[in-house]
Amino acid sequence: MQREVKQALVIAGAALLVGLGSALADPVDQRSLSGIERARRATVGILQPGEDLQSPGTKTHFTMRGTGVHLRDGYILTARHVVERDEDGKTVPAKQITIMTTELEEGLATLTGGNAFLDIAVYRVSADIAVRLPTASLAEAEPVSGEEVFTVGYPLGWGPAIGFGRVGNPNTFLPTVETRLVQLDLSACSGNSGGGLFNGKAELVGVMHAVIQTETVQGEPRCSRFGFAVPGALVRRVVTALTQGTQPRFSKMGIALSPVRMGARWRVSVSEATGPAHEGGLQKGDVLLALENTEITDAAQLKNYLIERTLPGQRVAVRVLRGQQEHLLHVTLGSS
Q1: What was the pLDDT predicted at 22?
Q2: Is residue 191 within 8 Å of 67, Cβ to Cβ?
Q3: CA-CA distance, 102 to 70, in Å (whole number)?
Q4: Among the listed residues 242, 260, 292, the one whose alpha carbon sits nearest the alpha carbon of residue 112
Q5: Distance of alpha carbon 315 from alpha carbon 311, whole angstroms
Q6: Which stretch of 58-62, 71-75, 198-202 has the lowest confidence by average pLDDT?
Q7: Distance CA 159, CA 185 (A)
Q8: Is residue 12 very low, low, confident or very high in pLDDT (cuts 50, 70, 90)?
């Protein structure tokens, strides 16, 4: 996976950078925009650090690092890895970034908050820019396999480009983030990271997280149709917390799992029980069968259930097989 965009976006002619006053003077009327156009104009590019257009008429190109999307009230949503910086040996989201709208209006955005767990960051632009940006609303329904979707972004720094495709597996995992991801059959590149994934109603159903590059030409990465997005339901939870000045809290059970074969099927057994799991009576060697009557067959499924369907402090029923006998235990979940 290639995460950083290395190709400059070339502006054809200085005329594009001047004479925009009348186009930018009035607030946007969202009712007059089609769904795709609304999504396109709600999308912003995120410039590489140090890039700006301080000298219109002389600067003819700039470099996009990634993509963001305007939610409401000036809040810009993006992927945390797009805006990460190294400070004192730690990787942190930048306190300020420079964004560029599709109308070529440049502005600074200030960090509201970031979450590495789900690779999400939220920034806020000034009200005078926000009033001219359409808003993107989060969908209530989860996307399903085969559903038509599209994304707007800056693949390899060029754009805004619109890519159309379909949802593949809405429940898959990568080692780059601690949550399930929506796998996509959709044309995208590393510069699409942080951009919105939209359904047919132009509602946000996810945020672009990663693209697996399948081939290169002369050493340079090409776009692929193997993309992944953070699901909208989790995005909503993180954004709500960050805009309220807090971090989202996720449930922690305190168990390590190992695969175990039972006849012709594979399941998972407890290799270590600490904290809430230990206090709830789970022991090393217990085979995990179900959580709150939902069958659990692997560690990813358990993680997904805990993140999306439980809250810290919640008491859950855990069914295990110990030896030849089933046991029903109760665990009060901790927080991570």
Answers
A1: 39
A2: yes
A3: 12
A4: 242
A5: 9
A6: 58-62
A7: 20
A8: very low
Angle at alpha carbon of residue 177, lines to 47 and 134, rounded to 5°: 45
* 54 or 297, which is more confident: 297
For residue 266, how many C-alpha atoms fall within 13 Å in the half-sphere facing its CB?
5
Is the per-residue pLDDT at 6 higher than 80? no
Describe the crossing of helices 299-309 and 232-243 by its angle, rounded to 10 degrees.
50
Place of tokens 């300020």: 96
Token pair of 118, please? 């789900």
126-150 residue pLDDT tens: 999 999 999 999 999 999 999 999 9
Please report, as a single letter, which amino acid is at residue 328: L
Q: How far apart are the first and last CA of the chain?
A: 27
Question: What domains sit in the chain, N to C, each tagged with a CATH number?
Answer: 9-130 (2.40.10.10), 148-243 (2.40.10.10), 251-335 (2.30.42.10)
The answer, yes or no, to whether residue 120 has pLDDT greater than 70, is yes
Instruction: Specify which residues 160 forms β-bridges with.
Output: none
Q: Which residue has the tokens 């964004």?
A: 99
pLDDT exceeds cutoff 70 at 332: yes
Range with lowest mean pLDDT among 17-26, 59-68, 229-238:
17-26
For residue 160, is the peptide bond before it cis, meaning its omega torsion is within 30 degrees of 0? yes
**Cα 118 to Cα 115, 178, 207, 241, distances in angstroms:** 6, 6, 10, 13
Instruction: Kindly report which listed range (21-30, 66-75, 325-334) carries the lowest average pLDDT score.
Output: 21-30
